[in-house]
Amino acid sequence: MPRTTTVECPGCPPFRALTFDALGLIKVIEARGKEGGVPKVVDRWGDPDASKCVLAASIDDRKTDPLLAVARKSGMVEVLNPLNGELSVTVSNVNSGSTRPEDDAIVGLHLFRRQRLELTSRSCTLLTCTTKGNASIRSVEMTDSSADSVASKTWSVCTSGNISCSQVDGSESYAIFGGKGVEVNMWDLDKCTQIWTAKPPPKNSLGIFTPSWFTSATFLSKDDHRKVVAGTNSHQVRLYDVSAQRRPVISFDFRETSIKAVTEDLDGHTIYIGNGSGDLASVDIRTGKLLGCFLGKCSGSVRSIARHPELPVIASCGLDSYLRIWDIGTRQLLSSVFLKQHLTKVVFDTNFTEEVRHTAADSALHEAQNIGEVQSADETEKLPTKRKKSSKEDRGSRKKASKDKDGSKKLKSKKRSKSLENEFADDA
Question: Which CATH number do you get for residue 202?
Fold first, then answer.
């Protein structure tokens, strides 16, 4: 059983998140309500199968007709509808050679926006990268439920080593790759050419060379592809400036376990890092200063961190099977959801906020209309009536009846007093 701690959580703003786990399940978590919402699992897609473990996922944040791409351990890439989980198309990434899908699994996946590529209404473009460095960009026509598309561009991003992380910038023109024995390198996706690679670290004082092992990487800003942040297996965080040099501009250690997840903030200089021992912190990468750790330590390795594009929150998940929502200002835990399986990835559905606003406004308007209809119905059914004035005869009869009652009460009291006097006289 995972270690758990009891923490008083104030609740979350309205959001919708998708989580992916080691059994291939996709779970939808929603929190509704303006303040103090409690996130709950509202839907689950797929059947538990270890061979369908989700290794990478990418969601398209366009407002109309969004898509979700999922890369599984079996070498299949599925394109889904993130609103209802309906499968649009399945693409096989298995090569015709003797290599098994598990030996050359997909570790990097990106779903391109349709506006950039000017595709048809039923098309999508995927970037995939495998452990052995086989990268490809392919266009898929979503006409059939299963299709083996022909990769339009294929190349190798490394000659040796294993790729473990990849990321595409905001303009979708550049991508970075890194891994075990593979230095961080940047490629131009339009030309499929390498434009920059990091310089290997020098030998230590004993003359021993230790190759780099990058476990996570991201662009520092969506608008600027020149600055790259990468985490290593030797618990180091490095900042590279492509336009300046091949060596890291800033490098610092964080705790004593390997860095597993790195995510950038919207301000362009803050990053969020998570390691293998469950530590989660925010760092100002300009100076390498630790801004603070998030309150409420995770029980297992952090494998994914997602920054919400509108709300001041981040989501983290990992091997402790918990999805946690954090406030980036106070670094306080807002809420957590136990999801039973080891989690590999979490993404936010950015269209959910607008959907909640519209539905809330519509429900409020509908409720107001119902209240108005009820009030009008009550007014029509219950008309105001005037009291009928009583006549003089009625008033006189009422006064006479009250006098008779008073007289009978007086007679009864006199009889009681006489009987008591007779009893006292007999006793005397």
Answer: 2.130.10.10
Other Cβ atoms less than 10 A from the Cβ of 389: the count is 6
- 357-378, pLDDT tens digit by residue? 444 444 444 444 444 443 444 4
Nearest to 110 by CA among 75, 145, 138, 144: 138
Q: What angle do CA 180, 128, 325 make, to 5 degrees?
A: 80
Q: Is 132 helix (H, G, I), strand (E, B) or coil?
A: coil
How much is the mean pLDDT over the chain?
82
The region, left, alpha or beta by phi > 0 then psi within -120 to 50, assigned to residue 164 is alpha
Q: What is the largest CA-CA distance in the chain?
A: 132
Report how far residue 140's alpha carbon sits from residue 111's, in angstroms, rounded to the nearest whole number.
Answer: 11
On whether residue 302 sits in a domain, the answer given is yes
The total of structural domains in the chain comes to 1
- Position 361, amino acid: A
Which of the 8 DSSP states describes residue 391? P
Q: Which amino acid is at 254?
A: F
Query: Token pair for residue 121?
Result: 């209404």
- As a three-state string, the secondary structure of 182-216 is EEEEEEECCCCEEEEECCCCCCCCCCCCCCCEEEE
Is residue 271 a contact partner of residue 259, using CB atoms and an 8 Å limit? Answer: no
Does residue 267 lie in a domain region? yes
Order of strands across the sheet that contains 214-219? 214-219, 227-232, 236-241, 250-253
CA–CA separation, 57 vs 20, rounded Å? 8
pLDDT digits (tens, 9 = 90+) for 208-222: 888 899 999 999 998
Three-class secondary structure of residue 423 per DSSP: helix
In a domain, 84, yes or no: yes
CA 417 to the chain's CA centroid: 88
Q: How far is Cα 167 from Cα 179, in angstroms, rounded to an integer?
A: 12
Q: What is the residue range of 83's domain?
A: 15-354
Q: b vs e for 299-335, b when ≥16 Cβ sit within 10 Å of the residue's Cβ?
A: bbbbbbbbbbeebebbbbbbbbbbbbbbbbeebebbb
Q: What is the pTM of this model?
A: 0.79
**Dist CA 196 CA 308 (whole Å):** 30
Q: Is residue 160 part of a domain?
A: yes
Cβ-count burial of 145 within 10 angstroms (0-12 exposed, 13-18 middle, 19+ buried)? exposed
